[in-house]
Amino acid sequence: MKFFKSKFFIITLIVAAVIAATFTAMSLLGYSSYIKTGLNYLTVPVQKLSDLVGRALDGYSSYITEFDRLKAENEELKKQMDEMLDEVQSAKALRSENDELRRMLEVKKEHLDYKFETADIVGREDGNYMTVFTLGRGQNNGIDRDMPIIASNSGLIGRITDAGATWSKACSIIDTGSSVGAFDERSRAAGIVVGDYELRLKGYCRLAYLQSDADIEVGDRILTSGVGSVYPRGLIIGTVTEVIYDESLRTKYATVKPYAEISGLSSVTVVTSFERYIED
Amino acid sequence: MSRPGFAAILRMTLTAIYTFIAVLIQCSVFPHLRIFGVIPEFTLTVIVCVACREDEKFTSVLAVCAGFLLDTVGSGGFTLSPLLFLLAAAVSIAVKDAFRNKFAPSLISAAAALTVGAVKTLVLLCIKGAPFAAALAGTVLPQMLYGAIVFFPAYLLTALHYTVFRKSLAQKNGIRGVLNER
Lengths: 280, 182
What we know:
The structure holds two protein chains of two kinds. Chain A is α+β, with helices and mostly antiparallel strands. Chain A has helices at 2-5, 7-29, 34-57, 62-65, 67-110, 197-202, and strands at 115-124, 132-135, 148-150, 156-163, 168-172, 179-184, 190-194, 205-210, 221-224, 236-246, 251-258, 267-273. Chain A folds into two domains: 2-50, no CATH class; 83-280, Rod shape-determining protein MreC, domain 2 (Thrombin, subunit H), CATH 2.40.10. Chain A has six helices and twelve strands. In chain A, strand 6 and strand 7 form a beta hairpin. Chain A is rod-shaped and about 130 Å long. Chain A starts with a helix and ends in a 7-residue tail after the last strand. By secondary structure, chain B is mainly alpha-helical. Chain B has a single domain (3-181), classed as Arp2/3 complex 21 kDa subunit ARPC3 (Orthogonal Bundle), CATH 1.10.1760. In chain B, helix 5 (103-127) packs antiparallel against helix 6. The longest helix of chain B has 32 residues, at 132-163. The interface between A and B is large, with 37 and 36 residues.
């Protein structure tokens, strides 16, 4: 306590009080002192340097005080992002559906005698190329056995093999049990498109039972012939990718790439009614 | 100039620089490290810690200068820090003789100084029209809390600073200083 009574302390206290009073009064009256201005000239360059350090540390304190707020904000943003992703996803689905319906309308305009029933694929066999799948609609919607199914681009997919009240099973043209009467659009050469085990894995099928002198070329479009009354005449099956002549059997066959994208289907169109083709 | 005298001057010069850096840190670094929206009284805690180890007269002058520098560099309109810092240093000087170590007087002085600093802030806020309760809960108490947090690094930094000058301090303070240092 001796220091409090010392002359030095009392003088320093008075000086400090005078400084405080003078500079506060000057500041309040709007006069910026020369000493303050001069000091700022001296300190500002150093202050800028330390400010750089401060900027580098900027925001770290928020980890302590604003953790809960940031966590809640993060949760909220995640929720919003999920909602937006859902919206984007549904918008994409709607656009895809819209495109399919638009293409279907074109098909309908081309084939006025066709009656359609769209159905979602609700089940499929495993593997890259599904050949048998389950549809979510059945006899209640007018779908029955041996009705052809087509894709939105009017490419042939296959036919209904079994039907219940609310479901139906279908097999595609690349399935080994499938056979479709077909002909070459360019040369009119007739044959039968059948499923082949090895080609099935690639998503292709085979145009077999061709005449040995049949005029078939790579790139030719293969259409349904309408023979057998399961498929209407004129549906696009696919395009010839390879022509092979079997010397021993003296037959020619071709590999056909289906026009419909069979592996990526989510819904199909069942042709429930059409005018039967009667061969002359 | 004899060797102890030179060491003391060097010590005081470096202490002054150390305090100057503390002022700059408070004005430039801590505004980026606000907790609960407040800046701590870092310089005040440094002055208190220095006062427990340094010469009384030098500490008094240093406290006034540091307070003045802080109010000048800072953007506040009031220049009350010289007075506050001097009082805080005086408290430390008065308390340090009662203890054998440096931590207890530093802590007690810092607590007293932070309380006075908080009162100063409260008075200034109320003068500027802030509601008393809001100023107390929103600024003054967080400022005290943050000040208490920064007291520990300030104490350690000051202790580190004086470790180099332990011998010159012992010679200056005599036997009492040696005991205190131990």
